[in-house]
Known about the structure:
Layout: H1 5-15, E1 32-40, E2 50-59, E3 62-72, H2 81-87, H3 100-111, E4 116-118, H4 121-136, E5 144-146, H5 147-155, H6 168-175, H7 185-201
Parallel strand pairs: 1-4, 4-5
Antiparallel strand pairs: 1-2, 2-3
Helix pairs in contact: 5-7
Amino acid sequence: xxxxxxxxxxxxxxxxxxxxxxxxxxxxxxxxxxxxxxxxxxxxxxxxxxxxxxxxxxxxxxxxxxxxxxxxxxxxxxxxxxxxxxxxxxxxxxxxxxxxxxxxxxxxxxxxxxxxxxxxxxxxxxxxxxxxxxxxxxxxxxxxxxxxxxxxxxxxxxxxxxxxxxxxxxxxxxxxxxxxxxxxxxxxxxxxxxxxxxxxxxxxxxxxx
Length: 209
């Protein structure tokens, strides 16, 4: 039986409320958000494996670039030529990568119970949950913020009757935010963080779709 994520989070919170990770299930009352991205070998969660994870914290109106998470994992068997074309990470680039167990511990420690921001963030969360749940018995309980939804909601009133282009490159161009190391986990996490701040605190972008 597939349990909807909302009910699964409630179940996880109850089961782990007194365990070593109980703090992850507490409501967050700070002013930080974590922009997170995973590079994987396949866009199908059931087949994909994580090869790198990048994350950076946003505090108020600032991206804390001095406090970032930039992890490379050991090359999985599913790493092939097609995925390398996208993320440009070869097996030799991952020779010094860390094991999944260590990567997950670092992610949990860095993210804590802060909200997680991303571009198609549910995919990244589902990928991490795929490896977290068998090891820890829970998935990420954090609130998620989808950048494309924030963008759409801000400009939809300017494009009545038109389709809003939600492609990553288009959003970056419309917001005049340079893409940092495109298709690297830390680069995409930084770019998303900057785009989010532009949307929240800058002038709304033009809508000429």
